[in-house]
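Final report, closing paragraph on structural work. Over the funding period we assembled a curated collection of sequence-structure pairs, and we close with a single example.
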Amino acid sequence: MADDLVITAFASFPGVAENPTETLLGSLPDARDEVLSNARHVLLPTVYGRAPRQLCDAMVPLPAALLMTGYSRHATGLVLEARATAACLPDRVDAAGNLPQASDAPDAQCVIDLARIAARVTDAGLPVAISHDAGGYVCNHLYHAALTGPCSGKDGPIGLFVHCPALSRSPLADVAAAAMDLHDMVRGLGIIARALLEAAGEPGNTLIRN
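Its predicted structure, as stored:
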């Protein structure tokens, strides 16, 4: 199972001393969910350039699916990102104090039918949304690198980025658009992970967009 799924999260970055996705990732080894607990868990630095390099290192051997997570103060639930771009915020430094380098690379699209996955999360009573703008920070930078790199081509793993809200009863909950209990966040992640593995394991699966 560990070779089937890679799950990533980000460490702290300016303005976010405790990243909710790092807490989420740290809880997965003990989760009562074999798909999540047996996956490869990768904590990435919130640093342009370094995060994609470390992701590529962690993708050996290539898994069937890659599930990336990151925090967004605008998220009101689990946000499924449909697209990644080369856009970067030119004045927002990463955790190492670096500014991004401009790029005119084309957009990259997720191949998953996110509406079907969102419906499964909704049916479980959890908040979910679909976004076509992954932002201009390291999350978007990593997603674009993944979709145009290890997840590209017919033999590449299925890749999806999910933005998460603050965790309930955390300092970020007071300034974020919404918060979720860790238990619910794990439960939603499990639904999404199973959908990715399902899509990756069945050629012609209806979760794959034509």
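Residues 81 and 131 are 5 Å apart (CA to CA). Helices lie at 20-27, 34-37, 50-58, 114-123, 138-148, 182-201. We thank the funder for supporting this effort.
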